[in-house]
Amino acid sequence: MMHLDTISNKTILVQTTYHPTPHLETEMEIMERLLQQGNTIYWIICKSDFQVCFNNPKHKEMDCKVCYSRVTKGVEVLRKNVLNNTNLHILKYNEFLKLKDFKQTGFPENFTFSEFKDLKAYHYKSYDCGMATASSLVSFTRNHEPNLSEHQDFINRGLLTGAYLYETFQLIVDKINPDLVILFNGRFVENRPLLRVCQQKNIDYATHERGGKLDNFLFRINSIPHSIETISAEMESLWKNADSDKTEIGKTFYNNRIKRVEDAWYSFTKEQQEGRLPESFKNNEGKKVVTIFNSSLDEYEGLEGFGPYFYANDNEGIKQICESLESHSNIKLYLRVHPNLRELDNSQNKFLRENIANLKAVEVIAAEDSVDTYALINQSDIIIVFGSTVGAEAAYAGKKVILLGRAAYENLKCVIIPKSHEEVMSILTNDNYVFPELNPEEPLKYGYWNEKFGLDYKFYKPINLAKGTYHGKLIKASPIVREMRRIIQKLNGTYKK
Question: Can you give the chain as a three-state secondary structure string?
Answer without folding.
Answer: CCCHHHCCCCEEEEECCCCCCCHHHHHHHHHHHHHHCCCEEEEEECCCCCCCCCCCCCCCHHHHHHHHHHHHHHHHHHHHHCCCHHHEEEEEHHHCCCHHHHHCCCCCCCCCCCCHHHHHHCCECCECHHHHHHHHHHHHHCCCCCCCCCCHHHHHHHHHHHHHHHHHHHHHHHHHCCCEEEEECCCCCCCHHHHHHHHHCCCEEEEEEECCCCCEEEEEECCCCCCHHHHHHHHHHHHHCCCCCHHHHHHHHHHHHHCCCCCCCCCCCCCCCCCCCCHHHHHCCCCEEEEEECCCHHHCCCCCCCCECCCCCHHHHHHHHHHHCCCCCCEEEEEECCHHHCCCCCHHHHHHHHHHCCCCCEEEECCCCCCCHHHHHHHCCEEEECCCCHHHHHHHCCCEEEECECCCCCCCCCCECCCCHHHHHHHHHCCCCCCCCCCCHHHHHHHHHHHHCCEECCCEEEEECCEEEECCECCCCCHHHHHHHHHHHHHHCCCCC
